[in-house]
Automatic annotation (TrEMBL), chain A:
Protein name from the UniProt record: Cytochrome c oxidase subunit 1
Lineage of the organism: Bacteria, Pseudomonadati, Pseudomonadota, Alphaproteobacteria, Hyphomicrobiales
InterPro entries named in the record: Cyt_c_oxase-like_su1_dom, Cyt_c_oxase-like_su1_sf, Cyt_C_Oxase_1, Cyt_c_Oxase_su1_BS, Cyt_c_oxidase_su1_bac
Gene3D superfamilies on file: Cytochrome c oxidase-like, subunit I domain
Organism: Methylobacterium oxalidis
KW DNA damage (keyword) present: no
From TrEMBL, chain B:
Subcellular location: Membrane
Gene: coxM
EC number: 7.1.1.9
Designated name of the protein: cytochrome-c oxidase
Top-level lineage group: Bacteria
UniProtKB/TrEMBL annotation, chain C:
SUPFAM superfamilies in alphabetical order: Cytochrome c oxidase subunit III-like
GO cellular component, one term: plasma membrane
Name under which the protein is recorded: Cytochrome-c oxidase
Sorted UniProt keywords: Membrane, Transmembrane, Transmembrane helix
UniProt keyword annotation of Transmembrane present: yes
Gene Ontology biological-process annotations: aerobic electron transport chain
Gene (name only): coxO
Membrane-spanning residues: 50-75, 87-105, 117-137, 157-180, 192-218
Subcellular location(s) of the protein: Cell membrane; Membrane
Family: Belongs to the cytochrome c oxidase subunit 3 family.
Lineage, uppermost ranks: Bacteria, Pseudomonadati, Pseudomonadota, Alphaproteobacteria, Hyphomicrobiales
Segments forming domain Heme-copper oxidase subunit III family profile: 49-222
Lineage top rank: taxon: Bacteria
Protein species of origin: Methylobacterium oxalidis
Length: 595, 277, 233
């Protein structure tokens, strides 16, 4: 295709965008606000996500206040309670976790780890952030709308979500659906960018099988998201029409407060299918980047290559593919054809196999390693423990018949908080402690970090482990008050109070983290370019923090995979990916390792 | 850190064994569900403890010390193959009993008697078949103050159905197929002691079955979020012996009497009016 | 949802050959050295084309989900009962015309003819605009017949599907405008040619989606196919 006469479009050098094509900011505004630099966008995404996440944290405090000490405060009634849990859940899953992993970590790490100058479509990338911000603002607006935000539960099941028996029916649900639609549009822009960047903008020599697992995780998660979010989009648009135009996509004939409503013929289960067709891949949209990041953290800080890299890659791809055929395990007791249960229980439990392989390989990476208990490593180990716990309780819920008594009880709440809340958030923290030196050029404070780590890890475990047993008793989720249930003994109230107190402490520990982030920006110890002595490309940038364009005059060339740690015979215990082989006679291989 | 991990593993087991929070004593035939759950606890508990303790061991044994260097081991196909195989085996050991029990769960026995539970925000109502032993037709079109369950007044099979507005009574040891209907939003009828439950979807009839195996009075709760008063949507199920059940049954009102405008019918109908929001 | 899974399976099948070429079985720790001794990557397609393709895959899934929702929601006896849509045949023709014009424009761009290219782009833009106006008129006709969105599942889906499709077409029109402006400014460049080619690809895809939707909502010669595709759902 490249024709000599069109000189301005000479073939791109392998590895991405030519320097001349890179967008150049001309003012402070375009450099730091309307920036098209993926690193700035990453920071914008992260700060917005953390800000809205802080709101979600406060909401969870209020939820725990009611559960632990019912009736203590008068401003939380049932209406407010349902609004609190709904907004907490939605913010955490979509606006914090998804945005932070893909928009935050994805934007920062994809170009840097792959040796690209930037994302391939910087302008679209910028739009992606601003639409995300708009989605967040619309969501926040619902707090101030008449009637307050929606209280339909984060699953937003119709018909309940848009009927007057649910709080926020007037404005809350409309704003929520609009916000979701905006989020999906914004995300799709970013997602196309991530996929194409991974596919096309890799530095010379960076084959797919040389990519760090972080990139594999983010890449696969992005593909999942591009294919899963349309289902939520469809569901949201249809529900919006049901609410605003009186269509009956999801609305059967309904009698509300003695009045027959205009709806008829719709299928509430259709929404559940659409929602979970999005909802289950969503779990992996959050989990796969966490898997990837934690693999790199463990490998780097144990000074050992990730064990079974190929298996890890295959497992990520397998989990991604399988995640599209398990959605109805959220619907075992939904009234769908019960024979589906056989199929979905099988697929769900099969997905446990690649997931288990990942856990084994993390653990086996520690085996015979040289373990530095740095903060990122601590968080990574804490991730293994909490993820293992949450993953195993998933085997209860995925096994259709065991799910019957447990579904919609506190067991489910404990399970998904452990596996999808605590575990990925621990990875986020670990990732921040790991990459903060690259982003800012300074280390985070170790003592504050230790405090933050122990409070968060032990606290979170103490909150969610006992909670499973409440569910086992039959304590239902989404109950404003369990007063009067015959099986809810006084000890249940004691346990609830205990959990609440721990939750307040864990929440408070996050203040130490935020303070650390702000304080270390100025006062942290200078980090240098590669404080962890890591192999991946982002640590090999000529300058730290990396400037716009990342690599100075020449793109890095990749000579090896991302995990050359403690290679026998090498002088150092790590060889950066862009280092040419200095020992041509080297005969590498597993057997070459002296025991 | 290693010490903490050991404490977590042992503490979790201790908590599991010693804590006072455990399932309610079962009152239905679904002891199989409990057994499957116990199998799951054994397998997952073993895996959890083993892996956490192994990590703790690694942390002690391979902690960084000056001069220490990690081994170089990109992969070990045999080990990975073994672990994959073992995991698959464990998963199969979980799945097989699960599917076996599920197969029973979805097959309603021939001799199960049908009852109907009708949910609306935020209360329960029940219907039992009349003398003809079957439930008559119903449709949301027929719902009115006089006819809160929307039974078809033209259907003879419906006219003798018993409409129950208070606690539901069930006879001990007789399988029941519970038909579930909702007139407004999604609900779920859950009695923890029975283990079984199912969502109630407006616009369709869902079902599940069980056999009560223990007399007593049990709390029923709505277990699918259904609006502001979801948490207050409670009911009660009384399981009793044949004699007590029959005498209770004789006191119930048929739909014909209920809707026919008798004083009792009106009184009940007024109580059926949904709570003021 | 069978349809959706089939769509995903098709996507997987399409990307499988590419994935196979990535040597996922390689042992990267044994392959130290520059990439030069690795097999060369197959010819790179332009990033923009890949981006549009990925976007279209997601858009395709969006509409596959909508079709699946239609199959689950609309009772069989209520399929394709909307009034005869003669106007929609006209709009379909306009969209075909737009696709044709864009392909002609692409050929013109290959030859480097600026005026011919702009002419074809203008023709395509007009045809797309005509399509959108026609769809709006179809809405008006149906509303005048009293078949508003709340009147039944079939008509509700008609408004939903046509509106979402029209939004995507409208997005394409905006992109076409940008491409035309760039082509007018710098005709004959690689960027201009690529832009026109991508517009053609995008409109082709939306034309394909429209044909499916048309056949789903109304009685067309190819409705039987779509009916068969959806029936296991």
């Amino acid at each position: 295709m490249a024709d000599a006469q069109f000189g301005s479009a000479a073939p791109l050098p392998q590895g991405g965008i030519d320097d001349v094509e890179l967008y150049h900011p001309h003012s402070w505004l375009t450099k730091y606000v309307f920036s098209q630099d993926a690193k700035i966008i990453a920071i914008q995404y992260s700060m917005t996500a953390m800000a809205i996440g802080l709101v979600a944290l406060v909401l969870s405090w209020l939820v725990r206040l009611q559960l632990g000490f019912p009736g203590l405060v008068s401003f939380i009634g049932p209406k407010e309670y349902y609004q609190l849990i709904t907004m907490h859940g939605m913010i955490m899953v979509i606006y914090l976790l998804t945005a932070l992993f893909l928009g935050g970590f994805g934007n920062y790490l994809i170009p840097l780890m792959l040796g690209a100058r930037d994302m391939v479509f910087p302008y679209v990338n910028m739009l992606s952030y601003w639409i995300y911000l708009l989605a967040v603002l619309v969501l926040v607006a619902s707090f101030f709308a008449p009637g307050g935000p929606t209280g339909a539960g984060w699953t937003l099941y119709p018909p309940q979500a848009i009927l007057s028996g649910t709080p926020g029916q007037e404005w809350g649900i409309v704003l929520m659906l609009l916000s979701l639609i905006l989020f999906i549009i914004g995300f799709t822009m970013g997602g196309v960018n991530y996929v194409v960047t991974v596919l096309q903008a890799r530095a010379p020599g960076m084959t797919l099988m040389r990519m760090p697992l972080t990139i594999w995780g983010i890449f696969t998660a992005t593909i999942l998201a591009l294919l899963a979010f349309p289902a939520l989009f469809v569901g949201a648009v249809m529900m919006l029409l049901d609410r605003l135009l009186g269509t009956s996509f999801f609305m059967p004939a309904i009698i509300e407060a003695g009045q027959r409503l205009r709806y008829g013929g719709g299928s509430p289960i259709l929404f559940q299918h659409l929602f979970w067709f999005f909802g289950h891949p969503e779990v992996y949209i959050v989990a796969l980047p966490a898997f990837g990041i934690v693999s790199d953290l463990i490998s780097t800080h144990a000074r050992k290559n990730i064990f079974g890299y190929r298996m890890m890659v295959w497992a990520i791809v397998a989990i991604g593919a399988l995640s599209f055929v398990v959605w109805a395990h959220h619907m075992y007791v939904s009234g769908m054809n019960p024979y589906f249960g056989f199929f979905f229980a099988t697929t769900t439990l099969v997905i446990a196999i690649p997931t288990a392989i990942k856990v084994y390989n993390w653990v086996l990476t520690l085996w015979r390693g040289d373990i530095h208990l740095t903060l990122p490593m601590l968080f990574a180990i804490a991730f293994i423990v909490t993820f293992l716990n949450g993953g195993l309780t998933g085997l209860f819920l995925g096994n259709v018949v065991v799910d019957v008594p447990l579904s919609d009880t506190m067991f489910v709440v404990a399970h998904f908080h452990m596996v999808m809340g605590v575990a990925p958030i621990l990875v986020i923290f670990g990732g921040i402690y790991h990459w903060y030196p690259k982003v800012t050029g300074r280390m985070l404070d170790e003592r504050l970090g230790q405090l933050h780590f122990w409070a968060t890890f032990l606290g979170a475990y103490a909150i969610f482990f006992p909670m499973h047993y409440l569910g086992l008793m039959g304590v239902p989720r989404r109950y404003f008050d369990i007063e009067g249930l015959s099986f809810a003994t006084p000890s249940v109230a004691t346990l609830n109070a205990f959990v609440s107190v721990v939750a307040f402490l864990v929440g408070a520990a996050q203040i130490a983290f935020l303070f650390n982030l702000a304080h270390s920006l100025r006062h942290g110890a200078p980090a240098g370019g590669n404080p962890w002595r890591a192999t991946t490309l982002e640590w090999q940038t000529p300058q730290t923090p990396p400037p716009h364009g990342n690599w100075g005059p020449a793109l890095p060339v990749v000579y090896r995979w991302a995990y050359d740690y403690s290679v026998p015979g090498a002088a150092q215990d790590f060889i950066p990916q862009n280092q040419p082989d200095i020992r041509p006679d080297r005969s590498p291989g597993p057997v070459a390792a002296p025991a | 850190m290693a010490l903490v991990l050991v404490l977590i593993a042992l503490g979790s087991i201790a908590f599991h064994l010693l804590s006072p929070w455990w399932w309610t004593p079962i009152a239905s035939n679904w002891g199989y569900i409990d057994s499957t759950l116990i199998i799951t606890f054994w397998i997952t508990g073993f895996v959890f403890t083993a892996i956490v303790l192994f990590v703790a061991y690694c942390l002690v044994r391979f902690r960084h010390a000056p001069g220490r260097r990690a081994a170089y081991e990109p992969e070990n196909r045999r080990l990975e193959g073994w672990l994959t195989g073992l995991t698959a085996l464990g998963v199969a050991a979980l799945l097989a009993p699960g599917l076996f029990v599920w197969n029973q769960f979805v097959r309603v026995p021939q001799n199960a008697s049908e009852i109907e539970i009708v949910a609306q925000q935020w209360r329960w109502a029940y219907r039992l078949p009349g003398a003809d032993g079957r439930l008559g037709a119903s449709d949301i079109r027929h719902v009115s103050d006089e006819n809160p369950l929307g039974l078809d007044p033209q259907d003879a099979a419906a006219r003798d159905d018993l409409v129950i507005d208070a606690d539901l009574h069930l006879p001990l040891g007789r399988p029941v197929k519970v038909l579930l209907r909702s007139t407004d939003v999604v609900h779920n009828f859950y009695v923890p002691e029975f283990r079984a439950k199912m969502d109630i979807i407006p616009g369709m009839v869902t079902y599940f079955w069980f056999t009560p195996t223990r007399t007593g009075t049990f709390d029923a709760l709505c277990n699918e979020v259904c609006g502001t008063n979801h948490y207050a949507m409670r009911g009660r199920v009384v399981v009793e012996g044949e004699a007590a059940y029959s005498s209770w049954l004789r006191e119930q009102t048929t739909f014909a009497n209920f809707a026919g405008g008798g004083e009792r019918g009106r009184r009940v109908a007024r109580r059926e009016a949904p709570p003021v929001r | 949802m069978t349809l959706v899974l089939a769509y995903l399976a098709a996507l997987a099948a399409l990307s499988a050959p590419w994935l196979m070429r990535q040597r996922l079985g390689a042992k990267p720790w044994l392959e130290t050295g520059s990439a030069l001794d690795l097999p060369p990557e197959p010819a790179r397609i332009p990033a923009a084309r890949l981006g549009v393709t990925v976007l279209l895959a997601a858009i395709g899934l969006l509409f596959a989900l909508l079709v699946a929702a239609y199959a689950m929601r609309v009772p069989r006896d209520a399929w394709q009962i909307l009034p005869d849509p003669r106007l929609l045949w006209l709009t379909t023709a306009l969209l075909v015309l737009a696709s044709f014009a864009l392909h002609a424009g692409r050929a013109a761009a290959e030859r480097g003819g600026r005026d011919a290219l702009l002419l074809w782009l203008a023709a395509a833009g007009t045809a797309i605009l005509g399509f959108l106006v026609g769809q709006a008129l179809a809405w008006r006709n149906l509303l005048a017949l009293g078949a508003g969105p709340a009147s039944g599942a079939g008509s509700a889906f008609f408004y939903l599907l046509t509106a979402l499709h029209a939004l995507h077409v409208g997005g394409g029109l905006v992109a076409l405008g940008a491409v035309a402006r760039r082509a007018a400014g710098a005709p004959g460049t690689e960027t201009a040619r690529l832009g026109v080619a991508l517009c053609a690809l995008y409109v082709d895809a939306l034309l394909g989606i429209w044909l499916v939707l048309f056949g789903l909502l109304f009685r067309t010669p190819w409705s039987g196919w779509i009916y068969a595709l959806c029936s296991p759902a």
